[in-house]
Amino acid sequence: MPTLFDRRRLLASGLLLLVTALHADEINYPSRPITLVVPYPAGGNGDNIARVFAKKLSDLWSAPVVVDNRPGASGTIGAGQVHRAAPDGYTLLLTVTTQLSSRVPGIKTSYNATQDFVPIAGLTIAPLAFVVPARLGVKSMLELEALARQRMLSYGSYGVSTSTHIVQHLLLAQMKAKAPVHVPYKGESPMVADMLGGQIDMGLVGIGQAREMEKSGRMRTLAVLGTQRSEFLPKVATLSEQGYQQMDWAYGTALYGSARLPPEVLGRLQEAGKTIMADPDTQAQYRNQSNQPWVNATVDELRQRLVTDTNNWNKVLASVGALE
């Protein structure tokens, strides 16, 4: 019959084997497929950005990297999945900093953006385009403002209290629009489909989407949201240039992991991110999507960006109150 000493020795041996196995897994990382969680539907700009990075990471490490689209609940479903996953580097989050940092009223999250996530790499940074369907018949912000005061218009966003919702709420308030109707979506693709189908009258989309729809003649870009004009739509003025306030938001897409990642794993991921973003082919692919590569973004810069966005959006949310 085993003595107390024998049982303790067996327990100690088991713990030692477990620690050794975990350490070996860190050293051999990655030894199995990596999942890149994207809180947007397939086919949208965020999904396109993710698939370029996933392919590059897979090629760099000769390991499978799977994109897992988890849209819904204003991005909190995808972020929550990564937060709940084991902090081993096999479940990562690719999202827009403003979406991760936004506090969504009425939705309880299991995570704190600035405490529970650590930045790995900046991928793209770009403004969004403010667009209307051609059927609406307006060709400028002034014409849209006049129409919005005459009759009720609808606008789409990527979810309740997301930045795309709040920005348009503030914009339409400045226009003195007549009872605008907000329609939330899980991402860009379904929103654009409804806009072209006549269900909504305006929205914010990626620059690439705006350019494609402009070419087809089905959509018009009236302005861009951001601190400066897009290099891909240089003739389109920013909302700030056209006299609207609080419209200086730039959208940075970045890769995040759990703040509890082992240092060895985090270091490997961050080094891989630098290598991929320094690759001219990566930059060319993002530019072909009309996305500006976020080259040379340091981890400290990304961390500060998340903190700043979180503080700024919390102030904006407090000022506008509960939105639907």
From TrEMBL:
InterPro entries listed in its UniProt record: BUG, Bug_dom1
UniProt xrefs under Pfam families: TctC (PF03401)
Alphabetic keyword roster: Signal
Signal sequence annotation: 1-24
Transmembrane feature ranges: none
Family the entry assigns: Belongs to the UPF0065 (bug) family.
Name used for this protein in its record: Tripartite tricarboxylate transporter substrate binding protein
Source species of the chain: Comamonas testosteroni (strain DSM 14576 / KF-1) (Pseudomonas testosteroni)
Lineage: Bacteria, Pseudomonadati, Pseudomonadota, Betaproteobacteria, Burkholderiales
